[in-house]
Write a structure and sequence with these properties.
Layout lengths: L11 E4 L5 H12 L3 E6 L2 H15 L4 E5 L5 H14 L5 E4 L17 H23 L3 E6 L22 H22 L5 E7 L13 H10 L6 H13 L10 E3 L2 E3 L8 H15 L4
Parallel strand pairs: 1-2, 1-4, 2-3, 4-5, 5-6, 6-7
Antiparallel strand pairs: 7-8
Helix pairs in contact: 1-2, 1-7, 3-4, 4-5, 5-8
This protein binds NADP nicotinamide-adenine-dinucleotide phosphate.
Length: 287
């Protein structure tokens, strides 16, 4: 766990996916540094239990919850509104909630779930909190993603993969979405004092894919003993969110605290602008 960090005291950090795995380890590390940490969770009871656990582990009681089911556009909007009613300023937003599914499951909005949670919720929540981030500048956004972006394609002709759904195609599309979103947002945020970066945690033993059969579930079970701990997986997220070395860096991709190169497709500005427009339309936001 990183030591207390004077620079993080009094900083407001919101971490999604804070009830498990990499997000929980990130929230714990930021709390250990002395920040005020708001734990994004979809289940209040589970969120409360994790809040108590993090408070006991770090001695920091400056913890709060933002309850939202990020698979639902309405619930995400409500969660953001509740957050903004309490915190007009935000200094760090870590988008880390995500999932892998072996079967196509539509969300309450009729969207493909990995697209909705892994990409669209990042887009929507971040946009809803942008004014608070600008008010808190210098502020940082860190998007947790994964190496599957390199295999990703944005299937604009069938974005919800209704005609042809394959789990890896859905996962990869959502991860490529994280990169296109990060780079486009960095361009839009130039000069605001708000930075945004994307990272890949490596292979981490978490609850990801738990209960899902198929090849992915098998792979996660087999690889388990060789995988990183959630704390190791969270290290680059925490570093990007809080270290002096990462101050001012924006629009970049990191693995193990080192800058990495993402796919050529992820750097396509036209593709990024098109995905931004479609995402905004789906969420009912102005492009
Ligand atoms: N683990 C890896 O090796 C690895 C590698 C690369 C990328 N990633 C990415 O990391 C993300 C998952 O993180 P993890 O590995 O730490 O898995 P995890 O232990 O399963 O944690 C996932 C977190 O996301 C939350 N979440 C899922 N759906 C949600 C929803 N609809 N609304 C709100 N919160 C939701 C979960 O909440 P609950 O606690 O309520 O379930 C949990 O807090 C995925 O996007 C995955 O692709 C993981």
């Amino acid at each position: 766990m990183p030591p207390s960090n004077e620079a993080m005291k009094g900083r407001i950090c919101l971490v999604t996916g804070a009830t498990s795995g990499i997000g929980k380890a990130t929230a714990t590390a930021l709390a250990a540094q002395g920040a005020t940490v708001v734990l994004g969770c979809r289940n209040r009871e589970k969120g409360e239990a994790v809040k108590q656990e993090i408070s006991r582990a770090t001695g920091n009681s400056s913890l709060d919850l933002m309850v939202a089911d990020l698979a639902s556009i309405a619930s995400t909007k409500k969660g953001a509104a509740d957050f903004l009613a309490r915190y007009p300023k935000l200094h760090v937003l870590v988008n880390q909630a995500g999932l892998y599914l072996n079967e196509r499951t539509p969300t309450p909005d009729g969207l493909e779930t990995m697209f909705a949670v892994n990409h669209l919720a990042y887009f929507l929540l971040t946009n809803l909190l942008l004014d608070a981030l600008k008010a808190g500048a210098p502020a940082r956004i860190v998007n947790g993603s994964g190496g599957a972006e390199a295999m990703g394609k944005i299937h604009f002709e069938d974005l919800q993969l209704e005609k042809k759904w394959k789990p890896m195609a859905a996962l990869a599309q959502s991860k490529l979405g994280n990169f296109l979103f990060t780079y486009e947002l960095a361009r839009r945020l130039e000069g605001t004092g708000v930075t945004v970066n994307v990272m890949h945690p490596g292979g981490v033993k978490t609850e990801l894919g738990k209960g899902q059969g198929g090849f992915f579930g098998f792979l996660m079970r087999m690889m388990g003993p060789f995988m990183l701990t959630p704390e190791q997986g969270a290290d680059t997220l925490v570093w990007l969110a809080s270290s002096p070395e990462a101050e001012g860096i924006t629009g970049r991709y990191f693995i193990k605290r080192k800058e990495a190169k993402s796919s050529a497709r992820s750097q396509d500005k036209e593709l990024a602008a098109r995905l931004w427009k479609v995402s905004a339309e789906l969420c009912g936001l102005k492009g």
